[in-house]
User: Fold Aspartate carbamoyltransferase from Microbacterium kribbense.
Amino acid sequence: MRHLLDTKTLSRADALRILDVAEDMADTQQREVKKLPTLRGKTVVNLFFEDSTRTRISFEAAAKRLSADVINFSAKGSSVSKGESLQDTAQTLQAMGADAVVIRHSASGAPRTLAGSGWISAGVVNAGDGTHEHPTQALLDAFTMRKRRHGAGSRGQDLAGLRVTIVGDILHSRVARSNVWLLHTLGAQVRLVAPPTLVPQDVSAWPVHVGYDLDAAIAEGSDVVMMLRIQTERMHAAFFPTEREYSRYWGLDPERFAALGEGTMIMHPGPMNRGLEICSQAADSAQSTVLDQVTNGVSVRMAALYLLLAGERTATAPIDAHTN
Ligand code: CP
Assistant:
């Protein structure tokens, strides 16, 4: 794997390979010594032009657990504020020896531009670009669904027949887009529920069912309900339901939480707006996978970095073959 830019073009075989390698990585994280020497001598640059807690720290933890050196770059406080371009920033980091660049950017397509530009030779991982995609989030979500569904027998399994309902601000959500494509590739049935003003215009080309009534969707039943964050920072006020309207009609409040089947998994990529799109009872319940998603994110990102930076020489060898 040269780059990881999206899930729309990720093959089923590559998706399952990442999930299966992530299983191996998760096993190594149960050991007393979590660190593997696999990427010793490699340098991973976290290039973040937008804020992040989970994704940036998770990539840092993943790279360090594989013994890579990590350089964290945040646009805030850097020469980007003096007008330095993406090209010059990336080339500066490449000159410091980056083998992989993990990039989050407000512009949809920035990771693909970087990967195809010839400015750098490093592998590129998309850590979220505008409203386009967030592939490692979808992979960690799929990993979490698969783990809850199949437990120890997860390896090699897809998500055939799993009924997943994604609720909220679809319009601005790169998490929703990446999940839709990956879940479809893995055989799940995806339904979107959102205010009509927060559904993308091109949704008819997506492999999903679309509805606007959360209570009706809950009554029909789902194996997974994924609540999305309301992205007020990307919202045009004129098109947004008020917060009160939003939580009344599309929030997972205590009544709707009680109406979900006990076996329904409740997911949220974080950060959560508690009391707006999700109530604390749901977020902190046994059905919630919010913290499992964070834990699994490290294993999935270890797998992505491993396949990017060591994948060719390890195509047939187990991870422990490189623990010398
Ligand atoms: N889910 C997610 O991308 O969270 P952060 O913005 O904290 O990285």
Residues 144 and 293 are 6 Å apart (CA to CA). Residues 313-318 have pLDDT under 50 and may be disordered.
